[in-house]
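Example record

One chain of 142 residues, shown exactly as stored in the release files.
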Amino acid sequence: MLALKVAREIDRLLSEVILLQRDYVARICSACEEPCCKSVQYLFDERDIIFARVLGRNGVPRRRHNGKGCPFLSATGCLLAPKARPFVCHRYLCSKLKEEMARQDPELLPVTSEKIRILEGLRCRLWGEYIDHCGMASKKRP
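Predicted structure tokens for this chain:
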């Protein structure tokens, strides 16, 4: 299935993005007094769900939360493993994170941004493949 091939490519590229950002996220986000995560709600979108489904993962995590901010934000940071996080958590780079990445390694931000751009395209392609597959399956039904 083509969707599986695309999902595996997303998974591979996502691993690269996570590795590129890891040290900066650990340093900047953990020290931030007002992390972005405090301003958002549930962030998983349809593409995150399809990505997990195509790779045979358990789907996206759910957690009850009555307050403001991401339900997976704890006093020590994100409760989710990096690959279990919604894509927006990898895509969104706040100004502090961008500044630190650019300061430490001027090539890093453009490389990361390009990989994220490619990931966006692959996620759109996966969405299309999944929708096409679902459409074909429904056409086969009597």
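Notes: The longest strand covers residues 73-74.
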